[in-house]
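Minutes, project check-in
Item: structure for the 425-residue chain
Input as provided by the requester:
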Amino acid sequence: MNCTITPEEDSRQKHWVRNFFRPVFLSAFFLTPLSAAEPAAIVTKTPGLVAFWDFVKREPDGAKRFTAHVPAGAKTDYPLDAANYIRDYWGAGREATYADFPSLGRGPFGNAIRIVKETDPDFRPFLHVPRSRLHDTPLDIKGAGNSVTVVVWAIRESGNHALAGIWHEGTDLKQQETASIAKIERGQRQYALFAGLNKMGAACGHVSENGASSFLNKYALHKSNSAAQSPEVPADSPADVLDKSWQCFAMTFDHEKDELTGWLNGVSGDRWLDHPKNDRLISSAYNAYMQGHFAKLPGKQDGEDETFPKDQYYNPPEAEPLSVKVLRESTDERIEMREHRFTKIEVTLRDGKEVARDLVALRLNPWWYPHDLYTPKDAQSGGPFTIGRVIHSSRSVGFTGWIGGVAAFDRALSAEELDKLAQIR
């Protein structure tokens, strides 16, 4: 009888033996040393999976790069290359190798890689699938009628930037960091999961319809933030601390609902931004809302910009309010607060007719997104799928910590499915 086990099985066996008696939220039948591959199977059996990197599965020969679990019959298993995007775009810094991503030797699926808090400003390594190897494959989720889910199991040491996705922010922004850039490219954003962005440690879904910016801002601003936020845990913490610190970050874009949602540990939660007019970035979405509203009214309105592009208006559905609260009322004027699914508006009425309105709150989770995902015209105008970092002009360190698994699906997973994946810690 042949009792030989593969390195993947051995790694998972050791992980689950070590953690057999550790309290977790999994059902008892998951916690047996003989079912070491069960957590990975939960992911691979979830409908819609296109790629799942557990950082255990590798190429059998050659460079032995990390590869993804993919559906039967898939033409590629998306091996990950190491790269330093500063070297690629600025011509500075050293090359990156797999040695720059220390392995933990355990994790939700048996191993994890570390995204290090780099001190060299010319060194920003990530793992990636080059565009040439993913263009028009199932991982290249884009275009009309398509939804997406990205799930990342991670321990966040610091930072709020990218975890995984197709999100080349572009290197064409005019700022101090790009003064010496050697390779300028327009943004090639499609979809990605971030560790918070404007809400540090939240699960932040980010999508783009044009690969570039939103609402005349220089940045892409279609993003959602889970209500909960992950803690910071030093990456060199003792093993028992790390084992208890795994977080399940996720984002979903549901094209049928036009909703982009962030999920942390299987929970989305409601998140609103009050006074969006005063926010450094979301004020651009506020302006897009008001310009869309002004455009519906006869004549030119105070504050209306007739040159504002119509495809950048931001006017979520407001057919029937969920609630109406009277703020002030006199004999000839009534001011109401109307709450809709994605907006809260203050409306001024005179003789029962609306004479003014203002957007006073905007929903960040879920975020209304009425577009398709960006479709690059060819491989040269599309970005890579990256893990740990994305290509961007500011060159910041970004997220640091441990990543124990990355999965992408070509559908919006349900709350129940995400909760099941979140139980894997």
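Outcome recorded: Helices lie at 7-18, 38-44, 85-90, 131-134, 239-243, 283-295, 415-422.
No further action items on this chain.
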